[in-house]
Structures are given as structure tokens and as C-alpha cells.
Amino acid sequence: MKYAPSTCSWVIAALVGMTTFAIRAHAQNAKQYAAKNEALRAVIRANGTYELDFPASGWKLDGKLPGDAGDLHSTAGNDKIGAYHQISASFDNGMRIAEIRVYDVRPLVLFRDVWKSAGQNALPFPAFQSLPQGAFRFSYQKRAFGYYEFGKLGPEGPWCLFDRQGHAMVISPADHFLVSDMEDQPDGVATSGIDPAIKQMPAGFVHSTLIAAGTGINSVFGKWGSALLALGAKQRPANNADVTLARLGYWTDNKTTYYYRFEPQLGYRGTLLAVRGAYRKLGVALGYMQLDSWFYPKGPQSRWNAGGSTIAWGEDEYRADKKLFPQGLANFHLDLGLPLVTHARWVAPASPYRHEFKMSGNVVIDPRFWQQTAHYLHQAGVVTYEQDWLNRNAQTAANLTDPALFLGNMSKAMAAEGISIMYCMPLPGDYMASTHYPNVQMIRPSDDGFARSRWDSFLYDSRLASAVGLWPWTDASFSHDLGNLVIATLSAGPVGVGDAIGNIDVKNLLAVERTDGVIVKPDTSLLPIDAVYRSDAEGEQAPMVASATTRFGKLQVHYVFSYPRQSSGAQTSVPLRELGISGPVFAYNWVTHQGQPIPVGGNVHMEFKDGWAYEVLSPITSGGIALLGDTAQITPLGRARVSSLRQNGQSLTASIRFASRKSALTISGYASRRPVVKALSGTLAGVSYDQATHMFNAQVSPAKSREAIVQISAQ
């Protein structure tokens, strides 16, 4: 690129960390301003053209402001993401400012469209002449649950572009998510702006578009999501942040046993009390119970059992139906002895709420309603509020203020009462909007009734959820569906069941939870690996391979789940490099209880039994030892069971957590030769070692702290 004559002055910013950042500031008649970091380079020229170059991939995005650019200049500053350098120009007769903000040490760029004066909603910025040629396209559509799709880019974003070499880019709105509009036009032009149904923009309005780039689809999604969280000033919630996330729950939603039905001789209240009793008798601890849309009166006749998905069948009053709970919801909670999760719809046309509170569309935006509702729920023992139908019925009017009032007042009121929020039937904009609401912790990424047909959509949509700091909820399973329970547990989100009384699989449920009901789960959500995106983009229909992890310092355990699609065979082989593993591991087949060491650069062989395969990959230390943990659990090395794991020379030291001081369990592992196992805290009842398989077992009991510390050393 050629710059203005030598009479121009250059201002060079300092070298910051990994990035060499430069601003070229010219005289008043300058031809262009440019800014760059290690991953990308941005330019605005006096003739109104602008471009974004990505040297590693060779990709380029370029556009043109309407007319020449005015007041070209550069600035430096800090925002919630971090330090940046920004190039700016006025356009649209000086009514607007185009800003391109490049971050010093992050592979991110933020386009900002600033309205100095009120005006017509037209001429979106940015507007790229084309997207990179030959790049694969992956996005989420404006449909319930934000359903994923290859090839077609959705109008709310985010858009993901990637190639066979692993280069990736994610583009999305960075604010006003529920009224944003991204267009991939037939002529190739790609724009990011505000829904054209909103005709006028007020003075002072700002709309931003975020782009993240780098190597690795999952890695770039993670960087993109972290940037949105930073802009929203939200911390990622822990995967055990509340009861709904931490413990096994019972659900009464669609497709479960007691959805709009109960045992005739018991009534609804009696049936749910009997459910709690049945699990308790079998030694399966429930952490909470969910009440679905049946629990409140709906429709023009205000009946609990009114059905339908049209607007007429919304909430008449968001209170427990008096026919089902004559003594109120708080009284039922006391008798049940469990926290509650409650479902919500939209507001019915005949509801008195439409006269008592300020409405928008078919939802209440009045803070008084949300304060009163949150207080009622808190008094009744509710720990999580589930807002359903966000894709269609539970929506505001299309304007610049009401979507944020709806979600914001909901979040603020619930947070004040200590209640977390789950979104259900969300659109992609709802996923992204959650980055502004700290107590929105969970989301449903797939349709009602979790089953084999939902697995792909759940895993791909979990990518979006995880990126923006949400824990994905599979929807309820039945306890005899082991494959569903494995995915739900490895999602690191909620796990819940909807079994009938008398049809509870205790063994499967005790593989999910400790005996006190705490779910033993990984640190990260189960997500498709990058190689699957590439094969699906090319239509190969290779087996799905998804991975979750638990990290203990430099030691990282991978939980790998795979299953065939169409006629992709009865087995698959996964290279360790595709999982991001650079060292040797011991691969433990959780179903067959067999395992083998895999050398550096090797492959994990997975055979599909009952339509799926699941392997635990534990790193082998320099001393030839790999800990497998409590293999009776789906997640043998989850932090609820193994709180820490440290390598000390030739030894591994593990802290084991127990449900009670009276517990005892068996921990397992691999050792190239018989190891020395010691209890540094707690007690060992015995150690066995199989010379053929090189696997060891040790029975461990806790100390008074309900924890044991075990050291495994090479001989």
C-alpha cells in the first residue's frame, strides 16, 4: 500500500505485548488512516473506501461510505475489551461517524456507526462489497432455539467463515441484538445494521459490529464471545452457580411424564410429592423440581389446562392455579422440601396485566410487574425463572428501547431476589443479549424432548451458548436413556429427568451425580471439534466428534463423545491433534471399561455401541501414570469428584471429594508399571494392579473434611 508524500507526519504507537500496532496520521489533506495489530489491518481513505485485511488467511473485507470521508482522524483509548487504536471519518453529510476500533493485543475489531444527528435508518455501516471467496459459511438462523445452518448466513448473526487451513472469522452485532439486521445480499454485499422496520435513528444512537479472527473455529468463537461478555460487563457464571446447574432436577415440561397430566388418584400436588418420595426411597437425590406452563392459569377462561400456542393462550395471571395448589405455591414448596424452577409464557389478550402494567407486544416491560413477580417467586422457593417462547410470542414491539426493557427489567428484578434465569426457544439475538444480564445463566439450544434426533442441533447450538457464557440445557431425558444422560452431563449445564413413578433407572442416575445430588461434570461444555465443521461444510456426514474438558493446571482431561450420521460406519478414528492434544494419553472406554495408551501423534479408535461411543482421555505423565478418577461417574475427573490434580516429578497427587464422611469409592488409573499409592489424607482399603491392562484400582475413604488426598507414584 502506498502512502501520502513524505511531507506527511507519521505517529507510531508503542509495541504492546504480542502486537505491533501502528497508526499513520497524515496532514489535513491525508489520503488515508490505517491501524493494525498482529491479526488484522484496517484502513479508511479520504474517498470513503475502507478495508480490513487478514494477513494469515489472505482474506479481505472492503466497503465504501456514501460519498467522500470527512474529518479523517485517529485516536487511542481503552474500553471494556481493552486498549485500542481507532480510525474515524464522518459521512452522510456529516450526520454520522464511521469508527473502526482495532484492539492492541486481541484479534478483534469493532465497527461503530455513530449518529450525530437524527436521521433515516439507511446506508448501514459496515457494508462489505463481498465476503471472502471460497470460505465456508456457518451461522444461526432466526428460528426457535437459534438453529444452526451451514452455507446460509442468518439475519441476526453471528456469522462464522472458515477454510480448510483452519483460518476462521466471526462477525456479529455487538449491541442492540434483538433489533439488529445482518444481510448477505444476492449481489454479494454483506451489511450489518438495524432492522429496517425501524425507520428513524435518534441523535446519539450508536450501533456496533464485532469481528474476531484467528486460527481454529472453536478458538475464534471463544475470543468473540469473551469480547461480547466484556462489552456487557458480565462474568461467565460457574457451571455450579446455583442449584439448577449444580444438582439433578426433576422436570414436568413437554414430552415428560407429568406434563399436563398426573396420577388420577393423587392429583397434581400429590403426584409431585410422590415423585419426590420415589426418588428419595431409591437413594437418588433431587436438587429441585420444575413446574411447567400447566402450573398457572391461561387463556380467556383462565384455566390451568388450557392449551395452544397462539396468543390467546398466554398467561392470564402468573400465579399458581388455585385448583391445583389451593394453599398456594409457597405451601407446596414447604411440603415438597425442594427448590422450584418455574416456566413462563407471554401475556394473554384477556389478562388484567394489560391494564395494570405497561406492555410492549405481548410481554410486560413495566418494572413494577417484574418486582412483584420476582418477590412472589422468591417467597415460594423458586431459584430459577424460565422465560419461554422468546422466538415468537414472548416478544416486544420492534423498536430501539422495549427489547432491553423487557429482558433488563426481568433480569434486574430476579437478581434482586436471588433468582437465576433460563431462556427457552431463544433466537440468536437472545443468546447474544444475555451478555448484558449477569443472572441469565442457562439456555435451551434444542427443541422439546431430548432424543437422538436432537443431538446435532444441541451440540452445534451449544457452541453459541458456550461462547457467550451460557450453560446449555438439553431438555429433560428419561433415566433409562443413557446416551442422552451422557451428553447432558458432558454439556456441563443442567441435567434433569422426567420419569414416571416406578420407572427410574437408579444406576444411570448415580453415574450422573454423587449421592448428595451434586452433578459431577466437566469444566467446559461438550462441543463439536473443528474437524467436524469442515467435514459437515463439505457435506461428508462423517461421524460427529465432540469434546469437553477438565483442566488441572497443565494437565487437561478430554471427554470425547462420538456417534455416526447416516451411513458413516460403526467406528471412527480421531487423531489426537484434532483434539488439541500434543502429548500421550490413556484412552478409557467408559462403556466397556477397557483402555489403552495412545502415543504422541496417535489416534483414538472409537467403536459405536448402541449408536455412540465415549472415551475419557487422561494425560500420561513423564512417570508413566494417568489418573482416570471415579470411573463409575460419567465424568470421572469432574471437579465435584476430583477437586485438584497435581504432578510432582514422578508422582500425581489428587484431592478426592465425597458426598459424606461415610462414603467410600474406587479410583482408577493407568501406570506403565505397578505404582505406589498412598493416602496423604483419608484412608485406603486396598490397591490392585492388572499386569495385562496396566490399570490400577484403589478404594478410598475420606477424612473428616469429606475429602481424601491420594498420591500415586512410579516405582
Number of distinct helices: 12
Q: Which outline best applies?
A: globular
- Would you tell me the structural class of the helices and strands? alpha+beta
The value of Rg in angstroms is 27 Å
Spans of at least 5 consecutive residues with low confidence = 1-30
Number of domains: 3
By CATH, the superfamily of the largest domain comes out as: Aldolase class I
Question: What about the largest sheet?
Answer: 9 strands, antiparallel
Bin the helical content.
10-25%
CATH class of the largest domain: Alpha Beta
CATH topology of the largest domain: TIM Barrel
> In percent, how much strand structure appears in the residues?
25-35%
Q: How many individual β-strands?
A: 45
Whole-number average pLDDT? 94
The largest beta-sheet arranges its strands as 6-7-8-9-19-15-14-12-13
- How widely separated are the two ends? 63 Å
Query: Can you tell me the CATH architecture of the largest domain?
Result: Alpha-Beta Barrel
Summary tags:
715 residues; alpha+beta; Beta-galactosidase, Chain A, domain 5; TIM Barrel; Immunoglobulin-like; nine-stranded antiparallel sheet; eight-stranded parallel sheet; 16% helix; 33% strand
Write up what this structure looks like.
There is one protein chain. This protein is α+β, with helices and mostly antiparallel strands and 715 residues long. It has 3 domains: 22-231, Beta-galactosidase, Chain A, domain 5 (Distorted Sandwich); 243-512, Alpha-Beta Barrel (TIM Barrel); 541-713, Golgi alpha-mannosidase II (Immunoglobulin-like, Sandwich). It contains 12 helices and 45 strands. Strand 23 and strand 24 form a beta hairpin. Helix 6 (367-379) runs parallel beside helix 7 (402-416). 51% of the residues are buried. Residues 1-30 have low confidence and may be disordered.
